[in-house]
Specification:
Blueprint (H helix, E strand, L loop, with lengths): L16 H6 L11 H6 L15 H28 L36 H6 L2 H13 L12 H8 L3 H4 L18 H18 L9 H15 L11 H19 L18 H19 L6 H16 L3 H22 L7 H20 L29 H34 L13 H21 L42 H28 L10 H32 L16
Helix pairs in contact: 3-15, 8-9, 8-10, 10-11, 10-12, 12-13, 12-14, 13-14, 14-15, 15-16, 15-17, 16-17, 17-18
């Protein structure tokens, strides 16, 4: 049953028409109540009025129903695969969690706001926070003043000139037109080949946009033409060329270790003058030339290249440029999705690109105030998640590993997309400017308690039903557990042991899932902190004081958990694994 259709209910307190007109208590007997039977008249009951719910609540309920359909489908599939042959027919269902909803037309479309206020800026505007900043500002004269909390990301570009204003672009965009390849060309070409493999080991596992065989094919094609003069080899399209350059830049950055999180505040290495670091800077300049040239190209490779450019800039610490490329990618995806939605088949490559771009832009929007989002969210109900089945390969250890990796990628993208969509719904229900009128009503606290309970229950249900292999490391075949019994790590997944599904996820992907869990806990319960701050004079006598304080503690617990995941636990990770290994034996706590 869809949540947008409420069942008609008759209650005893609902009097028939005759009793209501006489203002007489009605016993609601069927087919006639006592009064109508004694008077020998028709007894007519009118259906109770349907509850009125606002638009955003309708969207929330509809999306909860869609996700519950997926969860129930996944549960029935898991039970059917572990049952004997004479089990129920559910064992023959398609194991794809989204199979029940791909053909459904959404009842509601997302309302895209024209403006958005980031979480940090929202808190920054509180009068209490401004007062604290003014008090500290009197003591610290050298601290820069910011108009909002996220201005720090853009302040540097305002004070200093961008490199494009102080230097000229390179004369050539070709990869091998570089002094790096003057000596030991064959060895350095082999090094590029190794860097591509490194990219898929270190980068693609977190942002699984590409397939290794496709990238290697592009590399071999233009190497054959540019280095060995093989004119019979097909020319590489410019979007593909730019894509490969950004892949190599990301691989070089990962290889240098400059993008890694370290316990040391000042890394001891300094590779700014190393040949590979100079090569990375040169290749990024070449990539920018091509990215500008293909900026209006709506091909899959052009969008993939701009998406990786955003990831590269983010890993380099350039937040403003990272958002520029992320927004450009989302705009491309929105245009491509409009065409893809009309097609019967949507390629798995575009599915990956769409959902990674969707997650990436939404994560940006949650941190930085942005006007006029790309519009990519309009198609979130029309673009399916990546397929859960890989291509059929001959039976071999390599093909088995590739199939397992493809399935893991599909589950990884689907899980993070579902969580991100839910967090977007929370923001639209609780933080939308159109809903601010509720804060001025006397029953706002009661409404907030009720809606937060529903949201938190739904958020917890998502994590309770996560497949176990997303929460465990490849070296482990046992569920991770934590001391906190309320943590989703202590809850067993119904899909924990689906036969043929890989067991194990990358350590950092596990930490990201944990981080999103605590971020959701914080976002859902933060309005209670704001309620206290804005009503501090009357809060002591408020009838919902205890319940509001309890929810406020949940908000602070979410903040603490988030900081612990990305501060304490990452430090433990690098204390024991400076080489970036995947052993999670020293990382304890919730595996959400």
């Amino acid at each position: 049953m869809s949540y947008n259709q409420f069942p008609n209910r008759r209650r005893v307190i609902q009097a028939c028409v005759n009793c209501r007109m006489r203002k007489t208590r009605c016993d609601a007997a069927q087919p006639r109540c006592g009064l109508c039977a004694s008077q020998n008249v028709d007894c007519v009951y009118r259906d109770a009025k349907q509850p009125k719910i606002d638009y955003n609540t309708q969207v929330l309920l509809e999306r909860m129903q869609l996700l519950e359909d997926r969860i129930l489908s996944s549960n029935s599939t898991s039970q059917g695969q572990t049952a004997p042959p004479q089990a129920s027919p559910t064992s023959h269902h398609d194991p794809q969690p989204d199979s029940t909803t791909e053909g459904r037309e959404p009842v509601f479309e997302v309302q895209i706001p024209l403006s958005h206020t980031a979480n940090a800026n929202h808190v920054f505007s509180w009068s209490l926070v401004q007062k604290l900043l003014e008090e500290n500002g009197a003591d610290e004269q050298n601290l820069p003043s910011y108009a909002d909390a996220t201005e720090v990301f853009f302040q540097e570009q305002q004070d200093s000139k961008h490199p494009s204003t102080t230097s000229q672009p390179l004369s050539s965009w070709k990869l091998y037109d570089s002094s790096y390849f003057t000596l030991f060309r064959d060895d350095r070409i082999a090094r590029l080949h190794d860097l591509i493999h490194l990219y898929f080991t270190k980068v693609n596992i977190f942002f699984p946009l590409l397939l290794k065989r496709d990238v290697l094919n592009i590399f071999e094609m233009f190497t054959a033409r540019e280095v060995y003069g093989n004119d019979e080899t097909s020319m590489v399209d410019m979007p593909q060329y730019g894509l490969l350059l950004v892949v190599i830049c990301l691989a070089l950055l990962s290889s240098s270790g400059q993008s890694d999180i370290s316990v040391e505040k000042s890394p001891s290495f300094n590779s700014s003058n190393s040949p590979e670091d100079q090569l990375r800077s040169e290749l990024w300049s070449k990539a920018r030339l091509i990215l500008g040239y293909v900026s209006t190209d709506m091909s899959l490779e052009a969008a993939q290249a701009s998406m990786l450019a955003s990831i590269y800039m983010g890993a380099s610490g350039a937040v403003a440029e990272a958002f520029h490329w992320a927004h450009a990618t989302a705009v491309k995806c929105e245009t491509m999705a409009r065409l893809q939605a009309k097609s019967d088949t949507i390629s798995d490559g575009f599915r990956r690109l769409y959902w990674i771009s969707f997650i990436y832009e939404c994560d940006f929007i949650s941190e930085i105030s942005i006007v006029s989002p790309s519009g990519i969210a309009r198609y979130e109900d029309k673009i399916p998640y990546p397929a859960f089945t890989a291509e059929i390969h001959p039976i071999s250890p390599e093909s088995s590993e590739a199939r397992s990796q493809e399935e893991l990628v599909a589950f990884q993208i689907t899980t993070n997309s579902a969580i991100r969509r839910f967090l977007n719904t929370v923001n639209s229900v609780v933080y939308d400017d159109k809903e601010q009128f509720r804060t001025r009503r006397s029953n706002y606290a009661s409404w907030l308690l009720r809606i937060s309970e529903d949201l938190w229950s739904h958020h917890s249900a998502i994590y309770r039903n996560l497949p176990e292999f997303l929460l465990s490391n490849p070296s482990q075949d046992v569920p991770m557990t934590g001391a906190d019994t309320s943590s989703p790590a202590s809850l067993q997944s119904p899909t924990a042991r689906i036969q043929g599904i890989p067991v194990g996820n990358n350590s950092w992907n596990i930490l990201r899932l944990k981080g999103r869990y605590y971020a959701g806990q914080y976002i859902i319960h933060r309005p209670f902190i704001e309620f206290i701050v804005l009503n501090i004079d009357n809060f002591e006598s408020h009838p919902c004081k205890d319940a509001v304080l309890k929810r406020s503690k949940s908000c602070l617990d979410g903040c603490t958990g988030f900081i612990k995941v990305f501060d304490v636990q990452t430090h433990l990770y690098y204390d024991y694994h400076p080489d970036g290994g995947d052993d999670l034996s020293d990382i304890q706590g919730s595996a959400a």
